[in-house]
């Protein structure tokens, strides 16, 4: 690793099924783009790759490796020459791969055939930014070993994927505590445009818009949370949880974004607008 | 995923009517039997910075609070907040204390704390708003141990005064 950019972490499918001991799932925030990157280099689905936040990453290949970049589209270069996006490509030993700044979206995925072989923690190589499980965020000088989680040789030349939409609309289902918020809250959530606040990360997106009001007072005993849950804290500004969400929360969950739309949510940048559709 | 009053079931696919029917058949109204075997005993030094305030709120002396905390058997109701953090229930009602108005920016690992109806032990140093009554050197969470969490839901727990 020559330069990680603003934030680069190792991610895979995460740690499902351990919430009961307080361990959240984690894993690639945009799981669809991560899966695509693995498919392009012929990796098994559980292979770990790099999640690159806001681009800016540079690394040098220690030996010949097959790589692919997906997710937030950005300029890709090998030794300064333009290289393809969403397509497998071979890096010869010593070649420097550089990622520019995404022109849309936030998180790009860099898969290496064989997978990133850092030691698994509780069955996963993912960095859980909330609890600190897994490898720390990558720093310049880190050596990334390549593993043996390759499957069949890849057969696809390029994946025809479009950029994230300019005006994303996330589908929502009513949450388990919709009745703790007043009717205007649900209407506001599903009709207004919301802005992604600056203090958003892999844990969740803070949304700014109309203040959502409670229909009832009182404290909600802690309940299990999922990625996609739209929780409303006392300040009335909803939080949309992503991959590193806390396993429990004590504020009402007004709505839940459908799983298929979480990759779109993970590509939202601070300042972006987003809408929700019931 | 058990929580205070709910159980969250997460599937890796959309639920079917059969899944829903299977869940409806679960005897959720019945109290689970306590976990068999000896309780987990946590050695605790009761010298937390909030111990005196907790005692004052409870209208008890500090030794009396320590005696109460070591006399009861607690149960891990559910986990959350951090890996290995168990919400322990079974406290006497007068030891149900509110969170601190201003959370501490750093609570040391092993801190034994109270908030609301719960007791808990911070598995690692973190910010926290619970009232600190003591500390333990028990390792609450270790990824190289199976199981990694010392306190899993259903486990019974006792505090032992080693001050």
Category from helices, strands and their pairing of chain A: mainly beta
Q: Uncertain regions of chain B: pLDDT < 50 for 5+ in a row? A: none
> Count the helices of chain B. How many?
3
- Helicity range of chain A: under 10%
Biggest sheet of chain B, open or closed, and with what strands and sense?
Answer: 7 strands, mixed
Biggest sheet of chain B: strands side by side, in what order? 3-2-9-1-8-5-6
| Strand tally of chain B | 9
Structural class of chain B: alpha+beta
Q: Give the overall shape of chain B, derived from the CA principal axes.
A: globular
Oligomer: heterodimer
Name of the CATH homologous superfamily of chain B: Cyclophilin-like
How many distinct folded domains of chain A? 2
Q: Distance N terminus to C terminus of chain A?
A: 43 Å
Average pLDDT reading of chain B: 92
CATH top level of chain B is Mainly Beta
Number of strands of chain A: 18
Based on CA atoms alone, the radius of gyration of chain B comes out at: 17 Å
Topology of chain B as a string of helices (H) and strands (E): HEHHEEEEEEEE
CATH architecture identity of chain B: Beta Barrel
């Amino acid at each position: 690793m020559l330069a990680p950019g603003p934030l680069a972490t190792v991610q895979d499918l995460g740690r499902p099924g351990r919430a009961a001991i307080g361990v959240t799932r984690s894993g690639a925030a945009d799981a669809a783009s991560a899966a695509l990157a693995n498919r392009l280099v012929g990796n098994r689905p559980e292979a770990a790759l790099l999640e690159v936040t806001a681009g800016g990453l540079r690394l040098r290949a220690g030996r010949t490796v097959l790589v692919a970049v997906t997710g937030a589209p950005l300029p890709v270069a090998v030794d300064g020459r333009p290289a393809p996006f969403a397509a497998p490509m071979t890096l010869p030993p010593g070649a420097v791969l550089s990622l520019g700044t995404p022109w849309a979206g936030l998180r790009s995925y860099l898969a290496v055939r064989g997978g990133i072989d850092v030691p698994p923690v509780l069955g996963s190589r993912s960095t859980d930014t909330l609890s600190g499980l897994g490898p720390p965020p990558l720093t310049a000088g880190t050596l990334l070993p390549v593993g043996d989680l390759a499957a069949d040789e890849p057969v696809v030349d390029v994946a025809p994927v479009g950029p994230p939409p300019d005006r994303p609309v996330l589908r929502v289902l009513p949450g388990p505590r919709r009745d703790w918020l007043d009717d205007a809250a649900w209407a506001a959530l599903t009709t207004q445009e919301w802005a992604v606040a600056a203090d958003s990360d892999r844990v969740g997106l803070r949304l700014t818009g109309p203040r959502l009001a409670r229909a009832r007072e009182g404290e909600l005993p802690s309940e299990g949370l999922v990625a996609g849950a739209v929780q409303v804290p006392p300040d009335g500004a909803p939080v949309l949880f992503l991959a590193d969400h806390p396993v429990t929360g004590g504020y009402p969950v007004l709505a839940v974004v459908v799983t298929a739309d979480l990759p779109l949510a993970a590509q939202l940048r601070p300042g972006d607008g987003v809408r929700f559709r019931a | 995923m058990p929580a205070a009053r709910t159980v969250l079931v997460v599937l890796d696919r959309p639920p079917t009517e059969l899944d829903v029917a299977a869940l409806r058949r679960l005897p959720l109204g019945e109290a689970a039997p306590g976990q068999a075997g000896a309780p987990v005993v946590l050695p605790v030094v009761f010298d937390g910075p909030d111990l005196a305030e907790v005692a004052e709120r409870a209208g008890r002396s500090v030794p009396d609070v320590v005696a109460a905390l070591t006399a009861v058997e607690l149960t891990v109701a559910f986990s959350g907040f951090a890996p290995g953090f168990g919400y322990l229930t079974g406290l006497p009602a007068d030891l149900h204390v509110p969170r601190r108005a201003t959370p501490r920016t750093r609570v040391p690992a092993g801190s034994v704390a109270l908030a609301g109806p719960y007791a808990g032990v911070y598995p690692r140093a973190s910010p926290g708003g619970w009232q600190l009554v003591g500390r333990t050197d028990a390792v609450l969470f270790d990824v190289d141990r199976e199981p990694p969490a010392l306190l899993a839901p259903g486990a019974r727990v006792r505090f032992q005064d080693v001050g």
